[in-house]
Amino acid sequence: MFKCDGRYIGTPKDCGSLYRRMNKVFDETIEDIGAERIEKKLFEARRN
Q: pTM of the prediction?
């Protein structure tokens, strides 16, 4: 099982879609973006 946000679910892809539903800012799955680009997006979002 894959741990995502404190809950155990099937796969990292499921985790990505879960995050996508929770936060519309991320239109790609978490596994596709990578932590660095996520931080960059958050930084840019705070600036705007």
A: 0.27
Interior angle at CA 21, CA 1 and CA 31, nearest 5: 50
Report d(CA 43, CA 21) in Å as an integer.
20
List the chain domain ranges.
2-47
Cα(14)–Cα(43) distance, integer angstroms: 25
DSSP for the chain, please give it. -EEETTEEES-HHHHHHHHHHH-TT--S-HHHH-HHHHHHHHHHHHH-
More confident residue, 11 or 34: 34
Q: Which amino acid type is present at position 6?
A: G
